[in-house]
Design goal:
single chain; about 150 residues; alpha/beta; Glutaredoxin; 5 helices; 5 strands; about 30% helix; globular
Length: about 150
């Protein structure tokens, strides 16, 4: 099953990088961004750009959630390096990447598949209202923020 714009995302369970279970806040929208690897400059840029506009997303009632399959200790180092104020979800079992249909082929020299850089905007009813399947890490946060402004106007 691959999810598309207009689909309702089924309830899922995932651990945050903090080690606690992720619980979406009822009544709020969510921007879920998948990124392939914590130890790359493009992923760090994307995460930092989301952090730069985090307060604006919050003001608009949208929670930001990063999703990645790297080990928790790598996610914690990534959080500290990028100084993030939003959760990162552990997708080491690739449950979410599979559900959203964003897994790529293994990178050269690796055996595991990683998520492609994709972003999904969900409304308060867990319906995907917009998706971006080939994301520019430098522009993703601003693109999604502009979409939220347009959709919530």
């Amino acid at each position: 099953m691959t999810l598309h714009t207009g689909d309702t995302v089924p309830a899922f369970t995932a651990l945050q990088d903090s080690g606690s279970a992720y619980q979406p806040v009822p009544g709020r929208w969510r921007a879920l961004f998948f990124f392939p690897k914590t130890a790359t400059t493009h992923c760090q840029m994307q995460a930092r750009r989301y952090q730069q506009v985090h307060a604006e997303f919050q003001r608009l009632g949208v929670d930001i959630v990063g999703i990645n399959g790297d080990p928790r200790q790598d996610q914690l180092a990534f959080r500290d390096l990028c100084v993030l104020g939003y959760p990162l979800l552990d997708d080491g079992r690739q449950t979410l990447s599979t559900l959203f249909g964003v897994l790529s082929e293994p990178w050269p020299g690796e055996d595991i598949r990683r998520p492609r850089r994709c972003t999904f905007l969900l409304d308060a009813d867990n319906v995907i209202v917009q998706s971006w399947l080939d994301v520019d890490p430098a522009l993703d946060a601003q693109t999604v923020l502009e979409a939220v402004h347009a959709l919530r106007a």
